[in-house]
Amino acid sequence: MSYTLPDYHTAKPFRVDHDEREDYDQIHTKGLQVKWESAHVCPCSAAESMVFTGATATLTKEPDVDCVACSGSGWLYHSAQTITAQVLGNEVSPDLFAMYGSNAYGMIRLTTQPQHILEHRDRITGLDMRFRRTERKTRAGAVETLAFPVVSFTEQTGTTLDATSLQTVTLDMLHVTAADTSGDIVLDGAAPREYVKGTDFTIDGDGAVDWTGGANVPPLGGVVTYTYLTNPVFLVYNLPFASRQTYVRRKTATAVLKRLPNHADCKLAPFRFPGEAAVSS
Ligand SMILES: [Zn+2]
User: 60 alpha carbon to ligand 1 midpoint, in Å?
Assistant: First the structure.
């Protein structure tokens, strides 16, 4: 058995149509600047010699860990561009007692103009948003590239002597301490040595830490902890309205299909996959 269920409408349909231009203007005037990078599955594939079939290499369809493009992450990014997007909610829930550090969980809800079509795994960098991060890294060379670039932000404060006197301060790297190759913290007298920007290290144009020529430099092979400011990076993981459009009839004889804003839920990226291009503002 089959059936046919026709649409119904009144003889003279009453309609109050949405003006899609308000969507563009709302995002344009109230949104934040974000860097949007579109995700692209890397075409690489690992070749494995299957034990049971002798020496013949078989393509597994898994990302190739030696891939020069994606370094085994399986993802590439293209069409990096700065767009304006509305950011609703910005929740970070540090997992306080986790072994792997802070800021493990966080998310934003993102609304973009219709032409900015978001998709799973797209990368969003909040250029107007600041985020404090603490990270341990074994010192391996003169220039240390952290999980995310160190970014400078200017903040307004009072002064120590006069809370009504406004001053501007610049913040980027906030605190650096180190342990030696035996795992013992490096001391300055009885207290942990604090490494100072401009004296012990500089921040280069890519937001990396350059120890060249520093007065006090942590030992190679020692672990250094950096607390710094950066732009938060998010990955799209959920599209609750994957494709939104509607028919609008406004000064037209017939209704016209109009695209509506895109919406995506994005999770905070706790680290940057090796091989995925550096994010900078
Ligand atoms: Zn690849």
Answer: 13
